[in-house]
Amino acid sequence: MLDPTDHEFIADPYPALSALRESGAVHHDERLGRYLVTRHAEVRACLRDRRLGRNFRHVGSEDEFNATPLDPRRQDFWDVERWSLLFIEPPDHTRIRKLVASAFTPRAVEGMREPARQLAHELLDACLERGRFDLLYDFAQPYSITLICRMLGVPTDRHRDLLDWSHRHVKMYEFDTTEEQAQSATRAAAEFSAYVRELIADRRRSPRDDMISALVGARVDGDNLSDDEIVSTVVVLLNAGHEATVNTLGNGVCALLRHPGEWRRLVEGETAPAAAVEELIRFDPPLQLFERWVLEDGVEIAGVPVPRGEVISMLFGSANRDPRVFDGPDVLDIGRTNAAEHIGFGGGIHVCIGAPLARIELEASLRALVERAPALELVEEPVRVPAFVIRGFQAVEVEIGTGAEPLVSTVTG
Ligand code: HEM
Fold first, then answer.
1. How far is the CA of 146 from the centre of ligand 1 (A)?
2. 3-state SS, residue 68
3. What spacing in Å lies between the alpha carbon of 160 and ligand 1's midpoint?
4. How far does residue 362's CA lie from ligand 1's centre (Å)?
5. Rounded to an integer, what is the distance from CA 240 to the centroid of its chain?
6. DSSP 390
7. What does the pLDDT read at residue 111?
8. What is the pLDDT of residues 124-172, one digit of tens each?
9. Each residue's pLDDT tens digit, 20-49
10. What is the dihedral of CA 169, 172, 173, 177, to 10 degrees?
11. Cα(277) to centroid of ligand 1, in Å?
12. 89-129 pLDDT tens trace
């Protein structure tokens, strides 16, 4: 019913997702061995349903849940995942999320607003001097990784290593991970974790004003984080802290340049960048699918019984284009009043902890691009990364344009 590895589907999944959504709120896909949840109301409800979990190991065995045992050859990878907020359920999740939240405070995030603005301009200075640049490699990647590293207190001299470890790590979340990718992700996890352990040891000796020190020193209700828990937390913050933000900027700016009228609304100040960010996440979200295990008997989704032990896949890109919530859902409209009702940051106990930081980064970078490069245009058709779950481009080559030319992109579609 859905082939998440098909290149045509990856290039533009929305027509197929729309057909699936309009033919039902939930489908059992025998080939994928999953229940696909397609509509906004049902995805939203699943995200908040405590009978569904990102993991099942706290309530049952692998046999009981018919799950493939975690491959011991990938132990380094599983060790890093072990305490990741994205891999655990209450009570561990509640405990660790509280401790992480005590370090990732609204004040610390708000403190990133000015550095985010400054860095966007600094990086653009170099890009604009060259005239033509890759929005991802030259701007979005160094931008996001620098900001999350700065918050955590990770030196930026290793930022290309961090990007490399992260890209290899997240390949494990796709449907069609190859043996080679799995080996590479495992090696990346080992290197990443060894590096983070050095940073933890250093901050234990000499704490600084950064988040790794805050995680090392975090105390809530007499509890603290172990080194293994800090490693998982730092890795998930570093990975989640740039992959999705970079892809939102790539997908979003590309969508704007393909809809020059919408780009012009930003340039002319008709719509604020903060509002546009919500519509860009709705229109082409960087994370298309999240899964849950059914932990209890008696679960029904849209009247369809889903037995304990089954897996459900929530299709975010489909929910974000649900006409029951968004008028003309396939139209990019940066002035859309209810765009922020998108599912892009999830919901329930796993709701994105980094959403306020992502919003600051995306707003600042979009604002800087519009101010500094109002005649920005695509110079070639960007090529998609051949993956469905984490949706992005391999590169987004842009040119600053002359400003004398009309604001139309060379690419249509
Ligand atoms: C546009 C950018 C981003 C998007 C679209 C996004 C999306 C999401 C979504 C959908 C989830 C929930 C997953 C689930 O329910 O299974 C999530 C969780 C998470 N995100 Fe983000 N995210 C973004 C940026 C960030 C940033 C900048 C950070 C960190 C600084 C971050 C850190 C996390 C973490 C740690 C979790 C796990 C929370 C938990 O399980 O309790 N994300 N994100």
1. 18
2. coil
3. 21
4. 14
5. 6
6. B
7. 93
8. 999 999 999 999 999 999 999 999 999 999 988 888 899 899 989 988 8
9. 999 999 999 999 999 999 999 999 999 999
10. 140
11. 16
12. 999 999 999 999 988 889 999 999 999 999 999 999 999 99
Tell me the one-letter amino acid at 90: P
Output b/e per residue, 199-235; b: 16+ Cβ within 10 A.
Answer: bbeebeeeeeebbbbbbbebeeeeeebeeebbbbbbb
Q: Which atom of ligand 1 is nearest to the CA of 343?
A: 10
- Tell me whether strands 132-134 and 289-294 are parallel, antiparallel or unpaired: unpaired
Q: Helix, strand, or coil here: 128?
A: helix
User: Which two structure tokens, joined as six digits, stand for 263?
Assistant: 């780009």
Distance (angstroms) between ligand 1 centre and the Cα of 288 equals 12
Q: Which residues line ligand 1 (CB under 6 A)?
A: 47, 54, 85-86, 97, 148, 236-237, 240-241, 244-245, 248, 281, 286-287, 290, 344-346, 350, 352-354, 357-358
Kindly give the distance from the C-alpha atom of residue 345 to the centroid of ligand 1, in angstroms, as a whole number: 6
Q: pLDDT of 175-210, one tens digit each?
A: 778 999 999 999 999 999 999 999 999 999 999 999
What's the pLDDT at 160?
Answer: 86
* pLDDT bucket at 174, cuts 50 / 70 / 90: confident
Probe ligand 1: pick from 89, 352, 390, max atoms within 8 Å of CB?
352
Question: By CB neighbour count within 10 A (0-12 exposed, 13-18 middle, 19+ buried), where does 286 fall?
Answer: buried
Q: Which helix (DSSP H) or strand (DSSP E) does residue 97 occupy?
A: helix 92-103
Distance CA 142, CA 150 (A): 12
Average pLDDT of the segment spanning 237-246: 90
Q: Report pLDDT for 87.
A: 94
Q: Are 290 and 346 spatial neighbours (Cβ–Cβ below 8 Å)? A: yes
What is the C-alpha separation between 116 and 277, in angstroms, rounded?
15
How far is residue 136's CA from residue 392's CA, in Å, rounded to a whole number? Answer: 10
How confident is the model at residue 403, as a pLDDT?
Answer: 58
